[in-house]
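Input record, target 12 of the design panel.
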């Protein structure tokens, strides 16, 4: 007995699908600065929901006066399927009034309220990158490079 032609075609070329890959969604972001030692230490953490690429997350920090174009790669801390992926990063900052060392965060802890932070993550299916700005004023215009606002603590 021969299978119907339609069934054979579906098996050979697959069924067309209208399902779109799941988008990434920001769960939370954390930005801290500790100036208790010799140098300020900046700590960043990002949690996203969806198909996040392990190697595709980064953070940018800048201010209206310091347009820092450098992107810092976030370290993949682990994932629970597509329910949650966690990333983090820690780096020395710069003492107030001092020129930043290459690769360090160009801000002192005293400048915490003046900085803008963008977290970015890459979708492992589409390889598209989504960037979220920490929300100081969700009604304001998004900073350059940001796709949406996210809650940060």
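The sequence produced for target 12 reads:
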């Amino acid at each position: 007995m021969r299978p119907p032609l339609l069934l054979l075609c579906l098996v050979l070329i697959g069924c067309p699908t209208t399902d779109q890959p799941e988008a990434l969604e920001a769960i939370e972001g954390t930005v801290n600065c500790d100036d208790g030692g010799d140098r300020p230490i900046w700590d960043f953490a990002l949690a996203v929901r969806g198909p996040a690429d392990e190697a595709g997350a980064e953070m940018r920090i800048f201010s209206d006066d310091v347009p820092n174009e450098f992107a810092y790669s976030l370290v993949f801390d682990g994932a629970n399927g597509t329910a949650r992926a966690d990333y983090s990063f820690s780096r020395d900052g710069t003492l107030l009034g001092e020129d930043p060392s290459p690769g360090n965060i160009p801000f002192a802890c005293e400048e915490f309220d003046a900085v803008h932070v963008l977290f970015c993550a890459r979708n492992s299916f589409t390889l598209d990158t989504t960037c979220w700005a920490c929300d100081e004023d969700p009604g304001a215009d998004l900073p350059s490079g940001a796709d949406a606002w996210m809650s940060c603590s």
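The domain at 22-150 is CATH 2.60.40 (Immunoglobulin-like).
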